[in-house]
């Protein structure tokens, strides 16, 4: 049976009351528990999954969504990368493929620390000593300065295990877990230290769910569609390598979800 886990709390701050259109909030909007994009007053968010209208438009076209973060890209030479490429090829041939917009393999990664989003300018999610009105360029520069001498402390290897798939409400993503309790403590400690160094701590920080996203859902699934997608993923889950090694963390900036530009490796 495919493992579909409950949503992780990896969130943001309270609802932005300035939208003046609370009836248009997306389904299951939980800004106190996880990162939520700031609603737009001119978009019917309630009709779509939460990232549509922000990262992608309803037709699946890429939208600007600039920011920065600490990521671990998936090694192009890894067995997991090859298996996920085959999974993606299969996904794109399915009858439900039009329900999704898929990410290019070059952008596949595991987020270690969510970093800063230009579209989520809330106090807890922005560097403490930088005004939330500061330019994104200034934010990129500040974060780069703060991380220039930052030691990740992960050691030579951190092995991650595949623990099934994340819930299907937002898209298709692998659920990832450190293979050992020591690895989990090390990764959680790294997130804590990054948060302290940058002075930004997203709500839900302690319960962040490590994952690797393959695609975003364009509209809410019916029960029949969800069962169909879950059945497909169940068949694929046993074909994927059970584990992989985490790559060296990178400080990256991005303009959208298709390209993450490495600024430098963390020491």
UniProtKB/TrEMBL annotation:
Signal peptide: none annotated. Residues 15-24 have a biased composition (Polar residues). It comes from the Eukaryota. Residues 55-167 form the DUF1868 domain. Pfam families: 2H-phosphodiest. Residues 27-45 have a biased composition (Basic and acidic residues). Residues 1-48 are annotated as: Disordered. This is DUF1868 domain-containing protein. It comes from Friedmanniomyces endolithicus. The lineage of its organism: Eukaryota, Fungi, Dikarya, Ascomycota, Pezizomycotina.
């Amino acid at each position: 049976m495919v493992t579909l886990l409950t949503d992780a709390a990896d969130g943001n701050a309270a609802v932005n009351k300035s939208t003046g259109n609370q009836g248009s909030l997306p389904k299951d909007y939980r800004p106190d528990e996880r990162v939520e994009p700031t609603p737009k007053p001119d978009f019917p968010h309630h009709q779509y999954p939460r990232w549509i209208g922000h990262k992608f438009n309803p037709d699946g076209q890429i939208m600007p969504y600039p920011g920065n973060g600490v990521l671990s890209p998936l090694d192009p030479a890894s067995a997991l990368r090859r298996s996920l490429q085959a999974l993606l090829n299969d996904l794109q041939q399915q009858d439900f493929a039009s329900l999704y917009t898929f990410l290019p393999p070059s952008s596949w990664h595991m987020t270690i620390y969510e970093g800063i989003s230009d579209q989520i300018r809330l106090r807890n999610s922005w560097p403490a000593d930088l005004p939330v009105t500061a330019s994104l360029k200034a934010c990129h520069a500040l974060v780069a300065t703060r991380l220039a001498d930052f030691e990740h402390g992960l050691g030579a290897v951190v092995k991650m295990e595949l623990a099934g798939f994340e819930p299907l409400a937002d898209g298709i993503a692998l659920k990832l877990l450190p293979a050992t309790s020591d690895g989990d403590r090390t990764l959680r400690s790294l997130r804590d230290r990054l948060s302290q160094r940058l002075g930004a701590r997203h709500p839900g920080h302690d319960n962040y769910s490590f994952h690797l996203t393959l695609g975003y859902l364009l509209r809410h699934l019916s029960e029949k569609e969800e069962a169909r997608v879950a059945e497909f993923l169940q068949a694929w889950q046993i074909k994927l390598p059970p584990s992989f090694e985490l790559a060296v963390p990178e400080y990256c900036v991005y303009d959208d979800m298709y390209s993450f530009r490495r600024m430098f490796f963390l020491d």
